[in-house]
Amino acid sequence: MPYELYYWPGIQGRGEFVRLALEEAGANYIDRAREPNAEATLIAFLERTDIAHPSFAPPFLKDGQLIVGQTAAILLYLGDRHGLAPKNPERRLWVHQIQLTIADLVGEAHDTHHPLSGDLYYEEQKPEASHRAKWFREERIQKYLDWFETILARNPDGDAHLAGDTLSYADLSLFQVVEGLLYAFPKKTKALLAESPRVSALRLMVARRPRIRAYLESDRRVKFNEHGIFRHYPELDG
Amino acid sequence: MPYELYYWPGIQGRGEFVRLALEEAGANYIDRAREPNAEATLIAFLERTDIAHPSFAPPFLKDGQLIVGQTAAILLYLGDRHGLAPKNPERRLWVHQIQLTIADLVGEAHDTHHPLSGDLYYEEQKPEASHRAKWFREERIQKYLDWFETILARNPDGDAHLAGDTLSYADLSLFQVVEGLLYAFPKKTKALLAESPRVSALRLMVARRPRIRAYLESDRRVKFNEHGIFRHYPELDG
Fold it and tell me: Into how many domains does chain B fold?
């Protein structure tokens, strides 16, 4: 039975981290966000009262009777099933710790354009977004990239992967978050990547994986846009 | 060998979720945040270059040679070792999914007093904090409490615990986040808890656990204050 991925249509968002793992695994899945009436389908699912383990928010993955929400928890589940995480428990936990740190970065990237409220448009909180984005651009991106660079450099199995010497879901997620930062804050991110050779190499390595490349070139990959988490507002790029 | 918990001194913060699990487990641990010169100890640790798996930020837990960071990952580790999580893999993942949702709520609570930048004081972003807190108070707290109430009501093993019929680290964390909300937003949270009988009962149940009660009454429990995540600024309570 195929997996079913539920998420908001029209954007990459947090669902994209799950998609990259499913694509790399060559998994059989139905992307409910890419079907007609996807938003109505999603909302109807969220309103169901017969589900013992409802997710607080999308994305969530359905695997038969099992429903798993929270991006990092979905990847923990898929990582074990598709060889995208180490089997050793301590290394498996380390990959998860990295993923949780990526999730924090994703949350901060979102808040650059919505610092005051998720109920307002960006256009209604532009001065505050400008302030928040400045801090993110000048302090936070670098701090995160430095940490990724450091853990790559310290990986005892080599600096090609975040953990061990094979691909993990955290590598895929780091690729995705760098792509997002390059879209949203191109000037700043390009400058910082020039000083982050290991992160840059990992990004290219992931992009060249045959299944990832095929996915990125397909129309299944929705383009970044100004409805998602990573939005390009030139005035926020400094 | 005792665990060692590293965190910022003087506040409960994210470290408190780990402390509650360690206390409930009756685990042997050294709280490095409660020792003299704790901040210098922490910073020196963060600056070490000989650690293969450095954490991006505190809290982190040292167990012999193993270092685990990210609150939810630490709890995943402790939950398995101390019977604070189900053994069944799908239920274990559900408890973790709940914990990750609690982590999102904690992050949102923090941002009510720091919507623009972590580098500014609250006093330098009061109008923006007022706006962000209004949204949090009027929309977000209720949405989260409704979800906790729903998953308690739908627990097939009864509504006394978030998952199964025994205590998990997620129960402890829900207690902590409700305590924090009651401290920071007492008017709003009391009103909402009056309509959340299951969450209220869980809070009391956890507070009455003998080891938790002993901890809460001890001087190991630092009081909530205006340096932590949950801060009581009356003007933000509406």
Answer: 1
